[in-house]
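Model it.
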Amino acid sequence: MALLQATGTVAAKADGRRRKAEPQKAGYLVAELYLERRGNRSIVGNIYKGRVDNVLPGLEAAFVDIGLDKNGFLHVDEIVLPGVNVPRRGRGSSREGRQITDMLKPGQEIVVQVVKDPLKSKGARLSMELTIAGRYMVLAPYGEGIGVSRRLDEAERERLRKEAAKLDLKGSGAIIRTAAQGATRADLERELQYLFKLDEVLHRRVDELSAPALAFQEADLSVRVVRDIFSSSFERAIVDDPKQHHRLVSFFTRTAPELVERVELWDRPEPLFEYFGVDDVLDSTLERRVDLPSGGYLMIDYAEALTIIDVNSGSFTGHGKSARLEDTITRTNLEAAEEIVRQLRLRDIGGIIVIDFIDMARAHNRETVLATLRKSLDEDRTKTFVVEISPLGLVEMTRQNITDGVREIMTRPCPTCHGEGVIKSEETIAIEFERRMRELAAHTDAPALLLQMNPRVSAELAKDGGRALHAVEEQTGKWFFFEGSEGLPLEHLAVLREGEREQLLERALPFRPGEEAHVEIVEPHMYSPGDAVAKIDGYIITVKGGTPYVGEKHLVRIEEAGRTGAVASLIDVAADGDDSLESKRRRRSRRGGRRRSEAGATSGSGSRASE
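Modeled.
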């Protein structure tokens, strides 16, 4: 499912993905994207009956089996047991209080809630402070007191405190959510009774289940989005799935009847995301480069421990002849500060983030850029913390990382580079293959070997007249022949056959003298003026007199053929340099029927060279 927000407008799409955005085609700008696959839902908010697997005093934590591939992580500060008071301890604070080994034992069954999805190699983060979320409030069965969202203005917070003070929480705690703005005591009372019923169901399931097992599952994507985000400040919710539309209408009928009319079913022939321009924005979140309006750009790179964002001025050189460097840099940085926050929200980037703004000489300009960054972050619902600009001119910040971001959900590591972003060059692999060829030669009595490899690698061995290949052959006393296609991985090397030289040469040669082939002439020959080069799967064919036809396809006849290359002559071009009728027909067809001039059609090789 996706959510689109723009100047108070919301549109939702049920397609197994979740996004919040402001589309452009309909006059909006995409603000946030949320993705979730049907087969890999977030488990944040799920409550499990788990079994303690092991307790680690050195980490002050326990690993709990909740039935997933990896055990969940439970820190001592997240432990809540009936009748046990565990004082909170921040970093560097006193260690007074009971040890985790006094509270938990291996094999013990406990009830835990997931507060952070499993990310990369880490298991889910767990807490024993259970919460049950509603639309207006969150019930904390083991908590106490009433808190109110800080995103509300002070007057509304005070009003809600007075309304909530009259509620009977039955010894539990509660948090009034941002969506409760304007809610009455009756609204809060109605939802509280519903949350109490959910709590009763939870306790009943816990008593019936054997650990490890799921006791309570958080609502699915569509309900979570409208429950947590959708409010009277949004103009409408647009859904293109009739079943999801019915679910949302039912949800609002029970929780917020005044919002039912704002839920619309998309019935136009054009896809919802295409109309609002969300698909293009979604694709852009996978790109490293993000352009800024003035001509500058951002480069976003991901590392294991942090995300790095580099700001570059690009083509922006200021406005007018009187533009100063400091003003140009500051303008670019101000644009970058706003766009960086937008990208953090779009891509749902979490963890440590380091921003390298362009160096500014004036402290006032640095403060202005930092203030712009912080002001833009006020619109972000995810918790963030920004540090002052460092002596190196870097801005360090953190953003809460609860679930996988857009990049992690939409992509997987490249099977070729394994997520590194680079692969070995053909030249590097060819050098490695030289060593392996020597090893292969040392373990066979056959005089020749037929090797299978990517032709781009064998071409490296064969270039410069086959100097590298001849050196290996001279050193080993063996003959090597190659066979392969572009579909092979660059690092693939296999021995297809061992035998006599003449026997393997017959099989390895892609062409025989006298054979004809259609080839594309790709470049002039480096050492033979007038001749050109064609390549077929890395096999180099020298085309006599082919220079005037570079970039064209022609029929050639093989005159000489070797292991690494061949010599051929053009046969659809007359000996005097004039094109044959058949050649002209083919060339006219390739050029889309474009007519050549009468002079070009009858001229000799000098005219063709100038075409």
